[in-house]
Amino acid sequence: MQTYWKYIKPIPGFKGAVLRLHLLTGGLRIQQLVSLKSVNIRGDEITLFDTKGRPGNEPRPYTTPLLPLAMQALKDCNCAGEYALSTNNGQIHLAATTLSVGRVMQLAIEFQTLMQKEFAVAQKICSQNINSIKKYVAFVIAWCQRYSKP
């Protein structure tokens, strides 16, 4: 969990906010979370509806308290319209596949690829110049500052 948090914490914008909200709410069922309606957000809690294992029955409502960081992540999602987690002002909810393990892994691979490219640049700097150590240290410091921002 710490590794996952370390990865998703700096992801900016809506994408990062939704991933943080999912983790900070205890990994709620993705289909239920993405179906969250704006009217079901009340201060420090959200109400979701459980349909799993209830064919022919009304969905069972359940309330989930929000930690302060989860409330901030929800705020960062810029909830508007009927559905709180939406990319089109709440008209249609976010697709559950957006938060699927495959999608999150794809984001992780993209992030890892970026890190590998930047490391390759650092190696190239070191092999070309007598002042390479100073340049490499400056590069690493700049890289760390760029990716350690919340």
- The average pLDDT score comes to 79
How many DSSP H or I helices?
A: 6
Helix content bin:
40-55%
**Strand and helix order:** HHHEEEHHH
Tally of strands: 3
What does this structure look like?
It contains 6 helices and 3 strands; from the N terminus they run αααβββααα. The protein is mainly alpha-helical. It has 2 domains: 95 residues, no CATH class; 41 residues. The two termini are 17 Å apart.
Ordered list of secondary-structure elements with their pairings:
Elements: H1 2-8, H2 13-24, H3 30-34, E1 41-42, E2 45-50, E3 60-65, H4 68-76, H5 101-128, H6 132-147
Antiparallel strand pairs: 1-2, 2-3
Helix pairs in contact: 2-4, 5-6
Give the key terms:
single chain; 150 residues; mainly alpha; 2 domains; 6 helices; 3 strands; elongated
In short:
The chain has 2 domains: 2-96, no CATH class; 107-147.
